[in-house]
Design goal:
The chain has 394 residues and is α/β, with parallel strands linked by helices. The protein contains ten helices and 16 strands. The chain has helices at 12-24, 39-43, 53-56, 59-64, 77-89, 121-125, 200-210, 237-250, 321-329, 369-385, and strands at residues 5-8, 28-31, 98-99, 103-109, 128-134, 137-143, 145-148, 176-177, 191-196, 215-220, 257-260, 264-271, 274-281, 284-290, 292-295, 353-355.
């Protein structure tokens, strides 16, 4: 029986991994929970990347798609999906290899519990069992190499101090938008919006919401003196524009935007058909009654997938320890300056299981698609140098 590589997620990194497997002649299957590729990318399709096509198209994609977009144009998420990732998904090399509407819900070593055969060759030789939710019900399958490329966008962080839900948050979950808002319909955001977060997604939301004539923004920022992630002599104009816009809003230049620094969401409550929010701020408690809440406090990957595997997680980032330790020890927070750390940084105690892409960075926000493509390069090179580890039939 041919043994397979299982790729979890058909986003940019998962599709690039699939092309790498095809190039190497490895049997593989991509498992995608949505009914089309790049579902997370499409969820923020109205937003524009800071990085140009040349940083978002892998060399494998360009080899298979000679007409793939090129140049210094920064695409939107929708353009990334329709102009690049959709064409990749229908390449002959991937024909029949992507299983849509199939979610991997758990992974184990066949016949072994988490604590058994720690670090042994016996454990490494046992195949992985994947539990699947499919259109036809639950199913299982096996694989010998598993690449978790599921990303983070479907697992947003909560609002409360210290990262736990604020009182009232769970009861009012349906009133909270946790993805980048699409402001194409201004009426959707009429009234008062409480925006929480200070990263680039929150900065984008603040800029876009501030442009709506019937919207007032109350922006809660945790830092008492935010620097908005400024990078000296930034070479990405779109990123620098957001920093400048955010600083201007914080300086009070917009009469429909109030920025609360040093602010935390203490509690939420129903206030008729609106939501009452208690903020603790640097200047004392503040009560806000709002029509909408937009929570952009970051995202983390779903670790429950591999809770039965021997994965060494960083206590600070929630991502694999080796990579997190290397990233936390490197200087600077510019995504363009991330070091290439090699295959050892990607390895887990659970051999032949890899967490790649944005999920591999955990709570760190400096991931680039280019980094994910480099991870695929490192993995395929390492397995090419160790042919005894390759899936059977290659």
């Amino acid at each position: 029986m041919q043994r397979h590589v299982a790729i979890l997620g058909a986003g940019p990194v998962g599709l690039d991994a699939a092309l790498a497997c095809a190039n190497a002649g490895w049997p593989f299957t991509v498992y995608e929970a949505a009914d089309l590729v790049a579902a997370h990318v499409r969820a923020w399709g109205h937003a524009r990347l800071f990085t140009p096509w040349d940083l978002n198209v892998s060399h494998r994609m360009r080899t298979h798609l000679p007409d793939a977009p090129t140049g210094d144009y920064c695409p939107t998420g929708a353009e990334l999906a329709t102009r690049l990732l959709d064409p990749v998904a229908v390449l002959p090399a991937l024909e029949g290899r992507i299983r849509y509407r199939t979610r991997v819900v758990a992974i184990a070593r066949t016949g072994l519990l988490k604590h058994e055969q720690i670090g042994t060759d016996t454990r490494a030789a046992a195949p992985f069992t994947l539990l699947l939710d499919t259109p036809d019900g639950e199913d299982t399958t096996e694989a010998d190499l598993v690449l978790d490329c599921t990303g983070t966008y479907s697992h947003p962080n909560t609002l409360g101090p210290g990262g736990i839900p604020a009182p009232g948050e769970r009861a009012l979950a349906e009133r909270i938008t946790r993805t980048l808002p699409d402001t194409g319909d201004p009426a959707r955001w009429a009234g008062t919006v409480l925006l929480v977060g200070a990263g680039k997604s929150a900065q984008t939301a603040a800029r876009d919401l501030a442009a709506l004539p019937s919207t007032r923004v109350e922006w809660a920022v945790r830092s008492p003196a935010p620097d908005w992630g400024a990078v000296p002599d930034d070479t990405l104009p779109g990123r620098q524009h957001l920093v400048d816009t955010s600083q201007a809003l914080a300086d009070g230049t917009h009469d429909r935007v109030t920025v609360h620094t040093g602010a935390h969401v203490a509690a939420l409550r129903r206030a008729g058909d609106r939501v009452g929010v208690t903020l603790t701020t640097a200047s004392g408690p503040r009560e806000i009654v709002c029509d909408h809440i937009v929570a952009l406090t970051g995202y983390t990957g779903d670790a429950s997938l591999y809770r039965q595997l021997q994965v060494h997680e960083c206590y600070a980032t929630g991502a694999p320890m080796n990579l997190s330790a290397a990233l936390l020890g490197s200087a600077g927070g510019d995504c363009l300056a991330q070091p290439s750390l090699g295959i050892d940084a990607l390895r887990n105690p659970e051999r032949h299981f890899f967490i790649l892409g944005a999920k591999s960075y955990g709570r760190l926000n400096t991931f680039l698609l280019r980094t994910g493509y480099e991870q695929i390069d490192q993995l395929t090179a390492a397995y090419a140098e160790e042919p005894e580890l390759l899936p059977a039939g290659t």
